[in-house]
Amino acid sequence: VKNLQQSVEQQREQEKGREKALHQELGKMRSKLSRAEQKLQFDSLTGVCSRRWLDEFMSERLPGVEDDHLCMVMLDLDHFKSVNDTYGHDVGDKVLSTVGRCLAENVLRKTDYAARFGGEEFAIMLSDTDGPGGAAVAERIRQAIAALSVDTGSGALRCTASFGVASARAGESAEELLQRADRALYQAKEGGRNQVCCPS
Fold first, then answer.
1. Exactly one of 9, 56, 66, 120 is catalytic; which is it?
2. What is the DSSP letter of 66?
3. Rounded to whole angstroms, what are the CA distances from 35 to 22, 26, 27, 82?
């Protein structure tokens, strides 16, 4: 009987050891998953949300949204190709990361998000905001970007951005909202750049 009790105790200790090891392994896997999700959520260069995150946000947020309860601001850095051509991609990356920090500092509410749309183009999603409200935020950010100074190694570089604003309409798809914001951005560029366009 004594030997049987010892055997049972040993088995229990072994089970506890295996359980502890499994918990530790599970904790490591959760930590890795959390880091992987964070990488998917954020753009590594600029620090703002990623395009993938933006697509998911729009697909979840837009269905059922009421008129003027969600505003999209598209912005594109003016003449960015010439920055890369003149100073190289390292300086171009520095400009993008600087603009990313600027967006993070100026998109202040917890319900609002900035994301890198692609290349030198960014999108800002503003909750419970209509077109004029979105245009006001865009103008503040436009001024903040115009005030930035990036060290190129051979002098300071200033950059500007053009903005297109569109407020979501009830029943509108993500693609439709994006197209309207993009058309407004195109108008801002056609109008001379470094400005905000918010068609009614």
1. 120
2. P
3. 20, 14, 12, 35
Axis crossing angle, helix 174-190 with helix 51-61, rounded to the nearest 10: 120
Q: In the annotation, is 60 catalytic?
A: no
Q: Contact, 129 vs 71, CB < 8 A?
A: yes
Q: Name the pTM for this structure.
A: 0.81
Mean pLDDT by 10 residues, the chain (200 residues): 75 83 68 50 95 93 88 98 95 97 91 96 96 96 97 94 96 94 98 94
How far is residue 73 from each of residues 14, 38, 131, 182, measured CA to CA in Å?
A: 59, 23, 9, 9
DSSP state of 42: B
Beta bridge partners of 163: 75, 196
